[in-house]
Amino acid sequence: MNYVIQSFSIPLHSFEQALTPLCMGDLNYRDAVWLGIVIGSMVAVMATFVAIFLSGLDSPEVMSSLRSGLVVGFAAAVVVTTFAYYRLLETSRSGKDPGAIKEQEVMRVRAILALIGERDTIWAKQSWSVEEKVRRDRGVLVVDLHGLDAPSAAALTDRLLERRSDLGRLKLVTGRGESTHPGSADPGIRPAVMQRLKVGAQSAEWQVIQKSSSVTLRPMGRAPTPKQWLGRFAVFVVPMTGAMTLAFRDLAGTGMESQGMTFGAAAGLLMTTLLSGYRDRSA
């Protein structure tokens, strides 16, 4: 049963991480349904194989395992779709146009970094224009540091930290920190940026996610108010607890239905409690 719990929880964790406010504006209710179907199908396949393995490879109970997998997959689909629908509902209640908000965010960052674009030192490899270097790439707000020198990159990072209250999620393209060809970023950019972030990112409530050639600044988010938490709990508790109860009743097998339902209800309440406390990472 532990294997099944792990296979059920991993996609949900990935789903919650994926549902940042930046991508919610690109999703609609139909997408939420398909997302639930896809994740539910993945969980169903994993749960079926786990159930076959637990039933014994010498004489596996294929039909029973398939039924268990389908029930668990359905439960996962219900949980994911419910969560996605509620997040979309929260976004729509704001009454704001996601497209207009994204455009305003780009213009705001360009205005904040306009002074950096005016810096011109003898070490700069090329001109740096906010109109060109601050943009959206596949929904993500990107600040490309190619063309800056290390002091300018450090000043840019300081500027972002100073104006943290006006900013959300950002991706800084720093390069790999090594000069491999004429178009490479200044090797000093990445160390300069990381040094500034090491000092100021935590106090600015930014989570620093490093990749080989970029750094993503992810807001740590605001915890929900008690009223928001109760509202979410009221919406989530019935579908999530019900789905988990039915799933574990089936997984428990003949003669253990009562114990399975009890465990499933407890797991559903725990999951509902955790999901109700997700943080708003839009700022």
What does this structure look like?
The chain is α+β, with helices and mostly antiparallel strands and 283 residues long. The protein contains eleven helices and five strands. It has two domains: 2-95 and 223-276, no CATH class; 98-219, Ribosomal Protein S8, Chain: A, domain 1 (2-Layer Sandwich). Helix 4 runs antiparallel to helix 10 and helix 8 runs parallel beside helix 9 (189-200).
Unreliable runs = 1-25, 120-125
| Mean pLDDT, all residues | 80
- Overall form: elongated
Q: Biggest sheet, strands in spatial order? A: 1-2-3-5-4
What percent of residues adopt helix (DSSP H or I)?
55-70%
SSE arrangement:
Layout: H1 2-18, H2 21-24, H3 29-55, H4 62-93, H5 98-112, H6 114-118, H7 130-133, E1 134-137, E2 140-144, H8 150-162, E3 170-173, H9 189-200, E4 206-210, E5 214-219, H10 226-252, H11 257-276
Parallel strand pairs: 2-3
Antiparallel strand pairs: 1-2, 3-5, 4-5
Helix pairs in contact: 1-3, 3-4, 4-10, 8-9, 10-11
